[in-house]
Design brief:
Two copies of one chain form a homodimer.
Chain A (H helix, E strand, L loop, with lengths): L4 H12 L5 H8 L3 H14 L2 E3 L3 E2 L8 E9 L4 H9 L4 E7 L5 E7 L2 H12 L4 E14 L4 H10 L2
Antiparallel strand pairs in A: 3-5, 3-6, 4-5
Helix pairs in contact in A: 1-6, 2-3
The first copy, chain A, binds a DNA duplex (30 and 30 nucleotides) through α2 and α3.
Pfam families (chains A, B): AsnC_trans_reg, HTH_24
GO biological process, one term (chains A, B): response to amino acid
Protein name (chains A, B): Transcriptional regulator, AsnC family
Chain lengths: 157, 157
DNA sequence: AATCTGCTGGTCAATCTGTACAGCGGATCG
DNA sequence: CGATCCGCTGTACAGATTGACCAGCAGATT
């Protein structure tokens, strides 16, 4: 669970250059190949590394518009709303939260006009009382993990 | 840019089982290995697939609390605020948006108490006028891309 | 009809993977 | 203090995969 500096360096290295294999990683880190293999196995069974899936860019797929929608849900309808939203491909992510809204979801669309269609589909469901949408203009910090990994590696060192 | 069914199947296959190589993928898809290689190359230079970095779980790293903060920014301070937030490891993602707030960021923390520290650090900056935070309780739909890829593959087929 | 493009099925050498082993140093424990 | 455990090193091996080619072929384009 707690990662040490070597784990941190390994993760950062893999994040920066995913194509290098275990052997090359061991060379870069200055440790034996078996060590890297053991660390990787451990990190994966720990769940620290969930996998190495391809990072797909929705924009390149033809969905350049991103938005966040805050949804207010009718009491007791949570499960139904979740199931409904899970069925919409443009819903990339859904959270239930504290605070003003009850749920927060990330949407993508083919254009601003298309976003209207997506929102209609998202909110056109009985359990949803109200929705407010914020369209993303810029993304100054894309989803990242390296700084956190470095932080965690130093804390647990 | 537009992906066809084979691209879609390839991406989905890789997303589901990242460890399989080009050879195994070609077997599963029933095409020649060279074809898979060519498709992969194309998808990567298109930017559809940005890479194969490790998917790190912040919770397993010791950061089980996630929150979204909506920030209101003083006019003209955007760039400074961005730089400030980019320097906070617990800020995993930052967007500028339309709507009530001006920015939306995703935070993680070691605990609810620790979240206070993170928020203080985030909002303790001159350009930030107001912040409202929503703590994530559940994550019914974790960040996903497969349904969108399938959608895109069928549209452009 | 000539061209292009993308896919096929095959080859090659080079590399990497998974697995195993013995040795070694540091830390833990009775 | 000595025994033991654990993680890392360095090495070995067979088997699989990779990247790079190639000629042939079918469908679409010009």
């Amino acid at each position: 669970m707690a990662i040490d500096r070597l784990d941190g360096r390994l993760i950062v290295l893999l994040a920066r250059e995913p194509r290098i294999g275990v052997l090359e990683a061991s060379r870069r880190l200055g440790v034996a190949r078996g060590t890297v293999q053991a660390r990787l196995d451990r990190l994966q069974s720990n769940g620290v590394i969930r996998g190495f899936g391809p990072a797909v860019d929705p924009a390149a797929l033809g969905y350049p518009v991103t938005a966040f929608a805050t949804l207010e849900i009718k009491q007791g309808q949570g499960a139904d709303v979740r199931a409904h939203l899970a069925g919409v491909p443009e819903v990339l992510e859904l959270h239930t939260t504290t605070g003003h809204g009850d749920m927060l979801c990330r949407l993508v669309a083919r254009s601003n006009a298309d976003l209207q269609r997506v929102i209609d589909r998202v909110v056109g469901f009985d359990g949803i009382v109200r929705a407010s949408t914020a369209i993303v203009m810029e993304n100054p910090v894309p989803l990242r993990i390296i700084p956190l990994v470095e932080q965690a590696a130093e804390d647990n060192d």
